[in-house]
Automatic annotation (TrEMBL):
<dbReference type="GO" id="GO:0097266">
    <property type="term" value="F:phenylacetyl-CoA 1,2-epoxidase activity"/>
</dbReference>
<feature type="region of interest" description="Disordered">
    <location>
        <begin position="1"/>
        <end position="24"/>
    </location>
</feature>
<dbReference type="GO" id="GO:0010124">
    <property type="term" value="P:phenylacetate catabolic process"/>
</dbReference>
<dbReference type="InterPro" id="IPR012347">
    <property type="entry name" value="Ferritin-like"/>
</dbReference>
<dbReference type="InterPro" id="IPR009078">
    <property type="entry name" value="Ferritin-like_SF"/>
</dbReference>
<dbReference type="InterPro" id="IPR007814">
    <property type="entry name" value="PaaA_PaaC"/>
</dbReference>
<dbReference type="GO" id="GO:0005829">
    <property type="term" value="C:cytosol"/>
</dbReference>
<dbReference type="InterPro" id="IPR011881">
    <property type="entry name" value="PaaA"/>
</dbReference>
<protein>
    <submittedName>
        <fullName>1,2-phenylacetyl-CoA epoxidase subunit A</fullName>
        <ecNumber>1.14.13.149</ecNumber>
    </submittedName>
</protein>
<dbReference type="InterPro" id="IPR052703">
    <property type="entry name" value="Aromatic_CoA_ox/epox"/>
</dbReference>
<keyword id="KW-0560">Oxidoreductase</keyword>
<dbReference type="Pfam" id="PF05138">
    <property type="entry name" value="PaaA_PaaC"/>
</dbReference>
């Protein structure tokens, strides 16, 4: 049973002078947002930098698998949709890099960490896009899994991250719908088109389930992140939610998932399902997936090719600053 407020307080806190740690703990417990200027424990800051940077990198690297199909989209309409979607992902990366910068790191440092392999991105983007059906399946399942992961992050304890996620989630649900709409169109086409969709679903289903991370028993960061309210649900809870959400959509679409254990469990009121190949997951996370090297090489080349743009932009900004200073002196 808890004591009345006045009892058990130190003289400092009775005068309203909480220690920074106490103030932080209270804010987190009250579901208030921690802002960049607030005191925060080192571990909290480090965890957020790692998580938000990894999220930003995933948005940027995630442009590659779908970007691969922009020049080969089957119609002008599909090309315009795909271009807009890939561009949205660039925007998500930028919001998230900006959110990470509020924690005291520099974006150029984060980019270096990505291309040197010191920071990770979601393992899903190390799988290749072999057919145009993959564009639809990525929208439906990969953006769908991202939404399951990200909607709870709109209530995460760090203010700039939570606010970025609200905007990102709105666009992600658009992405998911465009993917589903593309698949609906293909499924109402020829048998060859329907086969393409099913073949693509077979390849993406397990990697999509891996997007929620390892099982709770093996997830080293979950407990602390939940206590800090950075994370609001466990990996296994989110995975279950995703399966529950995806099954009726698959039935409506007319495709199946490649899991013989997948069936409705009336007692639990949820779907039972099999486990992904976790050895494959760790292999891909460790850098040995089908496209890891290609993705990083491509990102590194884009970064190097963009050096002149960054130099020109800095020179322009310096000039504008100098002109403003001259203006101030003159007036
Ligand atoms: Fe995104
Ligand atoms: Fe997306």
């Amino acid at each position: 049973m808890s004591k009345p407020e006045s009892e058990g307080q130190s003289p400092e806190s009775a005068r309203g002078e909480l220690s920074p740690q106490d103030r932080f703990d209270r804010m987190v417990a009250a579901d208030s947002r921690i802002e960049p200027r607030d005191w925060m424990p080192d571990g909290y800051r480090k965890t957020l930098i790692r998580q938000i940077a990894q999220h930003a990198h995933s948005e940027i690297i995630g442009m590659q698998p779908e970007g691969n199909w922009i020049t080969r989209a089957p119609s002008l309409r599909r090309k315009a949709i795909l271009l807009a979607k890939v561009q949205d992902e660039a925007g998500h990366g930028l919001y998230l890099y900006a959110a990470t910068e509020t924690l005291g790191v520099d974006r150029s440092e984060l980019t270096e960490n990505l291309i040197n392999g010191r920071q990770k991105y979601s393992s899903i983007f190390n799988y290749p896009t072999l057919t145009f059906a993959d564009v639809g399946v990525i929208g439906w399942l990969v953006d769908g899994a991202a939404i399951c992961n990200q909607v709870p992050l709109c209530r995460t304890s760090y203010g700039p991250y939570a606010r970025a996620m609200i905007r990102i989630c709105k666009e992600e649900s658009f992405h998911q719908r465009q993917g589903y709409e593309l698949l609906m169109t293909m499924m109402s086409g020829t048998q060859a088109q329907r086969d393409l969709v099913q073949e693509s679903v077979n390849r993406w289903w397990w990697p999509a389930l891996m997007m929620f991370g390892p099982p709770d028993a093996e997830s080293s960061n979950t407990e602390q992140s939940m206590a800090w309210r950075i994370k609001r649900d466990t990996n296994d809870e989110l995975r279950q939610k995703f399966v529950n959400m995806s099954m009726p959509q698959a039935e409506k679409l007319g495709v199946t998932f490649p899991d013989p254990e997948l069936r409705w469990n009336a007692e639990r009121g949820q779907y039972d399902f099999g486990q992904p190949d976790w050895a494959e997951f760790w292999r891909v996370v460790g850098g040995d997936g089908p496209c890891n090297r290609q993705r990083i090489a491509h990102r590194r080349k884009a970064h190097e090719d963009g050096a002149w743009v960054r130099e020109a932009a800095s020179a322009h900004a310096a000039k504008a600053r100098a002109a403003a200073t001259v203006g101030e002196v003159a007036s």
